[in-house]
Task: inverse folding
C-alpha cells in the first residue's frame, strides 16, 4: 500500500523542522514524516542501523534533504544514496535555503530528483512543503521494493 | 562616467593605467623647452616606433660615415698616385738635366781633343732625349703648365743638340782651330741656360704641388679620424639609447605583468571571499527570516480568536517585514551574481528578444491598455541571458510606471551612434522622474517613489547598469515629473578588447 511509505525529512534546524511538520499537518501527512537531525541519521535509517536498527524494512517514499547539516551534509548523503544500487531508486528532493547555482548544479549532477528552495514567506513555505508531501507521499508512485536489485543486475 | 577607452593601442593603455614613473623626469624634460615639443611627440610614439626611429638613425649615421670615409679614401689614394708621379717626374727631370750637362761637357771635350769617345754622352742624349721627353709628358696632365714646359724643354734640347751637332760636324771636317771659340764657351749656351732654368722651374713647381698635396692628404686624414671618432661615439650613444629604450620597456612590461598578476590574485581571493559571503547570506540569513514569518503566522493562527485587530496587524507587519528582507537579500544575491557570472558572448537579435519578452509578459498585461511602438533594432554583441534581463527590467519598469495612465505608450527604438556602438532606448509616458535625481536611478536599492506608490526593491536598474557596464556600454536616463521617462543603454556592436 502506497500510503504506508514514510516521508524521510532531514532537517537539522528544529524550527525549520517544526514549521515543516506544521505544514504537513495541514494535510494530515505529519504522522508519515520521519525526522532526522543530520545526514548520519538519514544514512542510519536507510541502512537500518544504529538508532533505526529495529525499524521495519523498506525504503521511504521520498527523502527531503537539507543541504547544510552537521556531521554528514546533504550532498554527501545524496552521493551515498545515488551510488548505492539498493537506495538509488528512492526519490531525493533537495529542500534548502540555498539558491546558489553551484549547489543546484552539483545536486542535479549527483542525481537529485528535484530541488526546492525554501521560500522565506511562510505561506509559500507552507504551500511548497504541502505540495511536496502530497506529490511524493500520495500522488507519485514510488519504485517497487526490489526494483533496484533487478535494475542493478541488468546494468 | 569613467568608461575604458577601447580603441587605444595596448601599449598606451598600459601607460595610462599607471602614473608616470617619477615627477623628476617631467621636470628635466621641461628644462629643455625648445626640445620638449619634439620630445613630447617622440614620447607619444609607441615603443616599436621609437626603437625603429633609433635604428633608423644608427643606419643613417653609418651611411653618412661610410660615404665621407669613402670620399676621403678616394682623395688619399688619388693623392698617393699623384705623389708617386710627381716623384718620378722630378727624378726624370733630374736625369734629363744630368744628361744635358753630360752631353754638353762631352761635346766640348770632343771639340778640344777630337777624341770621339767623348761623344758618348752626346750620343746618349741624342738617342734618349725623345724617350725622356715622352716619359715626362706621360707624367703630366694634358693641358697643364707642366705639359707646356715639357714641350718647351723638348724644343730647347733639340736646339742644343742641333747646335752641338753642327759644331761637331765642323770639328770633324775642319779641325780644332775653327771651333776653338766654340769649345771654350760652348755652342748652345743660350739654349742650355734656358733649359737649365726651365728645368729648375719645373722642379720647383712640381715640388710645390707635391707639398700642397701632402698638406691636403694630412688634413683629409685628420678630418677622417675626427669624423670616424665622432661618428662612432654618436652611434654608440644612439645604440645605448635604443638599448635603454628596449630595456626600459621590457622592465616596464614585466613590472606591469607582475602587477596585473598580483592584482589578479587579489581579485581572485576577493571573489572567493565574496562567494563564500553570498553563500552564507543566501543560506544562513534566510533561515531566521523564514522562522520569523513562520512563527508569526503560526501565532496569528493559533491565537486568532484572542487577538484583536491591532495585534493581528502587528503580526502581519512582522511577517511582511521578514518577507521583504528576504526579497532584498534575494535581489542582492542576484545583483552580486550578475557581477560574477561568466559572460557568454554571442550575437543577439534584439527584435526577437523583445518579441519573446512581450510574449512572456502578456498575462500581466491583460487588463492594461498599452500601445507598443517597437522599431527595427540593430544586432548587438553580448550575453543573451543578461541582455534579456536588461530589457525585462526596462520593460517591466515602463509597464509599472505607466500603471496610472489610462492609455500607456511604450516605445523601444535605437539611435544612430556610429559603427561601433548601438544606443537603445525604452520610452514611456508614465509618471517620469525629476532630472535632479537622475544619478540615483541606477543605484542599488535606490527608489524615487514611495513603497506604497509602486512596488519593487529598487534593484532592477542597478542590474541593468551592471550588465551594460560588463558589456562595455553606458546607461543614462531622461525624464520629467509626470511626463514619462526614457532609459538609454549603449552596447558595443563589435566585441571590445577585454
Result:
Amino acid at each position: 500500500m502506497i500510503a504506508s511509505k514514510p516521508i524521510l525529512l532531514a532537517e537539522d534546524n528544529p524550527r525549520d523542522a517544526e514549521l515543516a511538520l506544521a505544514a504537513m499537518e495541514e494535510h494530515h501527512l505529519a504522522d508519515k514524516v520521519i525526522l532526522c537531525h543530520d545526514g548520519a541519521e538519514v544514512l542510519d535509517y536507510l541502512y537500518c542501523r544504529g538508532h533505526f536498527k529495529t525499524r521495519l524494512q523498506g525504503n521511504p517514499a521520498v527523502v527531503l534533504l537539507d543541504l547544510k547539516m552537521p556531521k554528514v551534509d546533504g550532498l554527501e548523503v545524496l552521493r551515498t544514496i545515488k551510488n548505492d544500487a539498493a537506495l538509488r531508486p528512492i526519490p531525493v528532493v533537495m529542500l534548502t535555503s540555498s539558491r546558489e547555482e553551484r549547489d543546484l548544479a552539483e545536486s542535479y549532477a549527483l542525481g537529485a530528483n528535484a530541488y526546492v528552495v525554501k521560500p522565506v514567506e511562510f505561506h509559500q513555505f507552507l504551500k511548497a512543503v504541502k505540495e511536496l508531501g502530497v506529490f511524493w507521499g500520495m500522488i507519485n508512485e514510488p519504485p517497487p521494493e526490489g526494483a533496484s536489485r533487478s535494475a542493478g543486475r541488468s546494468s | 562616467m569613467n568608461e575604458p577607452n577601447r580603441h587605444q593601442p595596448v601599449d598606451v593603455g598600459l601607460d595610462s593605467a599607471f602614473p608616470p614613473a617619477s615627477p623628476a623626469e617631467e621636470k628635466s624634460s621641461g628644462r629643455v623647452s625648445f626640445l620638449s615639443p619634439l620630445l613630447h611627440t617622440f614620447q607619444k610614439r609607441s615603443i616599436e616606433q621609437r626603437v625603429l626611429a633609433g635604428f633608423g638613425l644608427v643606419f643613417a649615421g653609418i651611411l653618412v660615415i661610410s660615404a665621407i670615409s669613402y670620399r676621403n679614401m678616394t682623395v688619399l689614394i688619388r693623392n698617393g698616385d699623384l705623389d708617386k708621379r710627381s716623384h718620378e717626374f722630378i727624378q726624370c727631370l733630374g736625369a734629363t738635366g744630368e744628361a744635358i750637362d753630360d752631353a754638353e761637357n762631352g761635346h766640348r771635350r770632343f771639340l778640344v781633343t777630337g777624341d770621339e769617345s767623348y761623344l758618348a754622352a752626346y750620343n746618349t742624349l741624342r738617342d734618349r732625349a725623345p724617350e725622356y721627353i715622352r716619359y715626362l709628358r706621360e707624367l703630366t696632365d694634358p693641358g697643364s703648365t707642366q705639359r707646356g714646359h715639357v714641350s718647351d724643354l723638348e724644343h730647347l734640347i733639340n736646339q742644343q743638340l742641333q747646335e752641338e751637332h753642327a759644331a761637331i760636324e765642323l770639328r770633324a771636317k775642319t779641325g780644332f782651330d775653327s771651333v776653338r771659340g766654340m769649345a771654350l764657351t760652348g755652342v748652345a749656351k743660350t739654349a742650355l741656360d734656358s733649359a737649365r732654368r726651365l728645368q729648375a722651374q719645373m722642379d720647383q713647381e712640381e715640388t710645390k704641388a707635391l707639398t700642397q698635396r701632402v698638406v691636403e692628404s694630412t688634413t683629409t686624414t685628420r678630418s677622417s679620424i675626427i669624423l670616424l671618432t665622432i661618428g662612432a661615439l654618436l652611434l654608440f650613444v644612439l645604440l645605448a639609447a635604443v638599448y635603454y629604450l628596449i630595456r626600459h620597456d621590457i622592465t616596464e612590461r614585466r613590472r606591469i605583468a607582475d602587477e596585473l598578476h598580483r592584482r589578479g590574485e587579489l581579485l581572485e581571493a576577493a571573489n572567493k571571499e565574496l562567494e563564500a559571503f553570498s553563500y552564507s547570506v543566501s543560506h544562513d540569513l534566510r533561515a531566521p527570516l523564514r522562522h520569523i514569518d513562520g512563527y508569526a503566522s503560526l501565532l496569528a493562527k493559533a491565537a486568532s480568536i484572542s487577538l484583536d485587530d491591532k495585534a493581528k496587524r502587528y503580526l502581519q507587519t512582522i511577517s511582511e517585514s521578514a518577507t521583504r528582507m528576504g526579497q532584498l537579500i534575494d535581489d542582492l544575491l542576484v545583483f552580486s551574481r550578475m557581477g560574477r557570472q561568466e559572460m557568454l558572448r554571442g550575437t543577439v537579435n534584439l527584435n526577437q528578444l523583445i518579441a519573446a519578452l512581450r510574449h512572456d509578459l502578456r498575462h500581466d498585461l491583460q487588463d492594461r491598455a498599452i500601445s507598443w511602438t517597437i522599431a527595427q533594432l540593430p544586432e548587438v554583441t553580448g550575453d543573451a541571458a543578461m541582455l534579456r534581463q536588461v530589457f525585462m527590467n526596462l520593460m517591466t519598469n515602463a509597464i509599472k510606471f505607466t500603471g496610472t495612465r489610462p492609455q500607456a505608450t511604450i516605445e523601444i527604438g535605437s539611435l544612430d551612434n556610429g559603427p561601433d556602438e548601438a544606443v537603445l532606448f525604452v520610452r514611456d509616458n508614465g509618471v517620469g522622474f525629476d532630472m535632479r535625481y537622475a544619478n540615483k536611478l541606477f543605484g542599488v536599492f535606490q527608489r524615487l517613489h514611495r513603497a506604497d506608490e509602486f512596488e519593487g526593491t529598487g534593484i532592477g536598474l542597478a542590474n541593468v547598469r551592471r550588465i551594460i557596464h560588463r558589456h562595455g556600454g553606458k546607461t543614462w536616463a531622461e525624464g520629467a515629473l509626470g511626463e514619462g521617462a526614457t532609459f538609454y543603454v549603449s552596447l558595443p556592436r563589435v566585441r571590445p578588447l577585454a
Summary: Confidence is low (pLDDT under 50) at residues 149-155 of chain A.
